[in-house]
Design a protein that fits this description.
With 146 residues, the protein is mainly β. The chain has one helix and 13 strands. It has a four-stranded antiparallel beta sheet, covered by helices on one side. A three-stranded antiparallel beta sheet has the order 1-2-3. Strand 1 and strand 2 form a beta hairpin.
Length: 146
């Protein structure tokens, strides 16, 4: 399964014949349930219209996250209508990325499709995100703030 952040919606892409689109801002809650028999997490996205989107965390291939909690955080970031998303391509040795708008209360970084839960500093009201390690160069860096 792949999850895409589109301009006005989040797409849950199960297969070419099964794509569920949720309008940005329509997610009310996201719950995770651990299935002890199957030894995996099930994620349930509750929409404001009463619909639900359900999937197994281990079936998600895009975006890459280290944990189910990181994926839930990313989905809430995608859902934020007032959020900002800025894309960069890192240069060799780069550690600082400057945005055109100030950071909001919550910020996450996504590097080459993988959510980063540590290794950078982002302060609300500031215009820069600073990484602790330098980039090799060519990585896609996405800063999402809401």
């Amino acid at each position: 399964m792949k999850i895409y952040n589109r301009a006005d919606a989040i797409e849950f892409y199960y297969s070419a014949s099964r794509i569920i689109s949720v309008k940005r801002g329509d997610i009310s809650t996201i719950r995770k349930h651990y299935d002890y028999v199957k030894d995996k997490y099930r994620v349930v996205v509750h929409c404001s219209n009463g619909n639900k989107v359900m999937f197994d965390y281990d079936s998600v291939t895009t975006p890459v996250t280290l944990s189910v909690d990181d994926l839930i955080t990313l989905l809430f970031a995608y859902n934020a209508p007032a959020g900002t998303m800025t894309k960069f391509v890192a240069t060799a040795g780069q550690t600082v990325f400057t945005l055109t708008e100030p950071l909001k209360a919550e910020t996450i970084a996504v590097i080459d499709g993988s959510v980063q839960s540590w290794g950078y500093t982002a302060t609300e009201g500031e215009y820069q995100v600073t990484f602790t390690a330098a980039f090799v160069g060519g990585e896609e860096v996405i800063i999402i703030s809401w």
